[in-house]
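Sequence dictates fold. Next comes a concrete instance:
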Amino acid sequence: MTWPQTKLRWWFACWLLISTFPCPPLPAAEPPPATPPPLNEKELFAYKPKGRGTATGQVFLSSPSGKAVTQAGVLIYLIPRVHYTRDWFDRNVRVSACMSRGDAPSPDSPAVPISSFECLRGVLSQLLTDKRLVPYLRTTRANPTGHFWFTKIPAGRYYIVSLLQGGSGAHQDERSSGIAWATLDLDAGEKATNLVVTDCKSGLC
């Protein structure tokens, strides 16, 4: 056998070996997961002292029949609108995975469903229990008609957020639950009145 013939046989054998064990395809590159911005407390300093502004309004949900559903004594939060809270709001309220999940199983307990309300309660609790943010939050409660008042507010930009839970009545309107929200830009000493804090199904936000 001549050298060219031997070389050709070796090349053919190598080609068969390579074709028998093809290289696995490279995984597609995935974009890095978006991470929340860090909390910059310097943005919050102006929200800690007492101010001269006030904010009053009504918090309610819009029921399927168009009725305004209120909840007496529900907590309403005034949250400074800074980079950190804006990211949380956009992720969890403005475009919320909780509202589309229905009653999905919990990752920890697959057999136990999590309602969209409990999901919202969880993401809101994560924000409200952040010890770095707590000194800058303000809280009040709604009266039986859903009206509320905040006083001594410093000038700034805010989210007004409330999580309302429907009762166990037979009528669908009585079982409405969800998160109501609004934004507020307050000047020094301004008295903001007739604010509408709702779940936006009514088209008022």
